[in-house]
Design a protein that fits this description.
Immunoglobulin-like; Pectate Lyase C-like; 1 helix
Length: 462
């Protein structure tokens, strides 16, 4: 009887062992790769990339043995591989349980070369299992760059477009220095890198060669995140600044202008887009500036004019639409003649003119897109001259001339799900031919204004 029981146990053990053996996938056809090509967006030389991954998926119920995972470029490859937590260029004899996956992590580091234009880098990873061989393709765009780390500019300096600038730790332009940025220059700023101007900034692009200021994270999803870098700050001593044909995007704050004491504008901004700004697109604190033919869009607060000052906006489209990154909760324009400091109210004269402008935001959370507040003795003079705006009630201390209230401007294309915003006007827009003639005969796209111009920075050509 005991012998029979022992034979039974041995038989059961043999069956279990046989089942385990039969459940091992020996043909190698049970695995697939989660990606055809692992792609890296622009990677600056020496900076390194974020880490991406792909999966080796075992679609069989049986255990799959991977005989070889090999980075084909080996140790000379710009790509780096990590399998199951271990770095290396070659791995073998790795088992993947049935219906399970193995993560393979990849990063890339680009060595500098003589190329001025972006260049492509490729390699592949070979995966083999029992005679089946597949390749995971790797592709990255490399870009040589000039790195600036905590730069203090004390003399007149020119930045050209030959290579982009990657700014780490910020840039400070001294009181008696001028930084001139030539057309086509691209400037990528780190999260710790404000541009602080105590002297003068001349950033003069052209329609064909605009100047770009943006964050230095170009990989998805970070490339479209607002708040990626601090912004451009013009402090009290700064003067005679010019920004023309520029694109300022993805900053925490766009342009910040501190107090200004002369009759000459601290900043003149022409033909410029300020977009996707987390906090305030344009902030003036008892300052003086001029904006012409500008688009200021999708900001936490598009324009804030605080503690008085003197401001002019002509042919500007100022709008925010709630989207995947920023919920439209504050007015597109806030203006006050005061500031609260140490429980005291300080006031100063406020003068602002808006001509041929659109001030609009998506409905739902904000009733009044224009908020004007007055306290203290500082005078307030606001002019809306040929302006389309949305407000439940008219702002106080404002003179209105030929304005359009609460009519949708009918922007060309708004697709929030795909993060696509085209702020040109449809031909049915109420803003068509509702402006007054100004010296600005061409719109932001360089197209001619015809007869009575349209409101905003774009002229409909239909």
């Amino acid at each position: 009887m005991v012998i029979n029981r022992l034979l039974f146990i041995v038989l059961i053990s043999s069956l279990i062992w046989s089942c385990k053996k039969d459940n091992f996938n020996a043909d190698g056809f049970g695995f697939i790769l989660s990606e055809d090509t692992l792609k890296f967006d622009t990677v600056f030389s020496t900076a390194g990339s974020v880490t991406q991954f792909f999966l080796i998926k075992n679609e069989s119920r049986n255990t799959l043995r991977i005989n070889n995972i090999q980075l084909m470029g080996g140790n000379t490859s710009p790509f780096r591989m990590n399998v199951d937590g271990l770095p290396g260029t070659r791995f073998g004899e790795i088992d993947i349980e049935g219906n399970d996956s193995l993560y393979v992590f990849v990063s890339v580091n680009v060595n500098p070369n003589t190329n001025q234009l972006p260049f492509i880098i490729r390699d592949s990873i070979q995966i083999s299992s029992n005679g089946t061989v597949r390749y995971q393709q790797l592709e990255a765009w490399g870009q040589n760059a000039r790195y600036i780390r905590g730069k203090y500019i004390t003399e007149n300096t020119i930045w050209d477009k030959e290579l982009p600038y990657v700014i780490l730790g910020g840039v400070l332009v001294d009181t008696f220095a001028t930084l001139e940025i030539e057309p086509g220059t691209r400037i990528y700023l780190n999260a710790d890198a404000p541009m602080i101007i105590d002297g003068t900034l001349i950033a003069k692009g052209t329609k064909k060669d605009s100047i770009v200021f943006q964050g230095n994270r170009l990989d998805e999803p970070y490339r479209n995140f607002p708040g990626s870098w601090p912004g451009i700050i013009f402090r009290e001593s700064s003067k005679n600044n010019l920004i023309e044909y520029a694109f300022i995007k993805n900053a925490y704050q766009g342009i910040i202008a501190d107090q200004h004491k002369t009759s000459v504008p601290k900043i003149t901004v022409n033909n410029t887009i300020i977009d996707n700004i987390f906090d305030i697109g344009v902030l003036g604190v008892n300052s003086r500036f001029v904006f012409n033919n500008c688009q200021i869009t999708n900001c936490g607060n598009n324009i804030a004019l605080i503690y008085g000052g003197n401001y002019s906006f002509t042919h500007c489209t100022v709008s925010s639409i709630s989207n995947n990154f920023i919920s439209h909760k504050t007015p597109v324009l806030t203006a006050t003649n005061f500031v609260k400091q140490n429980n005291q109210i300080l006031s100063a004269a406020l003068t602002a003119e808006f001509t041929n402008c659109i001030l609009w935001g998506s409905e739902g959370l904000v009733d009044n897109e224009v908020v004007l507040e007055k306290e203290g003795s500082g005078s307030v003079s606001i002019l809306f001259d040929h302006v389309l705006f949305r407000a439940k009630s008219d702002p106080p201390n404002t003179l209105f001339t030929n304005v359009i209230r609460n009519e949708n401007p009918m922007f060309d294309s708004i697709d929030v799900s795909n993060n696509y915003f085209d702020f040109r006007l449809k031909k049915e827009s109420p803003a068509i031919n509702k402006g007054k003639i100004t010296p600005f005969l061409f719109d932001l796209n360089g197209l001619p204004r015809k007869g009575l111009p349209d409101l905003g920075c774009y002229e409909n050509q239909d």
